[in-house]
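Pilot study result, target chain (126 residues):
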Amino acid sequence: QVQLVESGGDLVQPGGSLRLSCAVSGRAVARLSTGWFRQAPGKEREFVAAIKSNGGSTYYSPSVKGRFTISRDTAKNTVYLQMNNLNSEDTAVYYCATGERLITSSLTSQSQYPYWGQGTQVTVSS
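Predicted structure:
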């Protein structure tokens, strides 16, 4: 059974940075495709970023491209989301999700991910 535990959410000022972590157990993270999604109050959950299994190709939502970076540490079996230049629109609960044998075209679709973490709150406010 794959389990995910997110951490790193916090209150940060506009323009600040945070790094979220998603600790994975039950599978080697390099064999999994992992995505970050977020849900703001009153809005649907949306895709943020993903890193594909094996080769590690990365994909981003246009709203975060150039500001956020997804990466993984195979030794720690953890996936990270480095978030820079945060603004109020980034306020949300952030979830990591993972699965095996996901095709590239499905990485932005939350329905394709069978395993989810509990979420971590990111609040951007002065």
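One observation from the pilot: The radius of gyration is 13 Å. A full batch analysis is planned for the follow-on phase.
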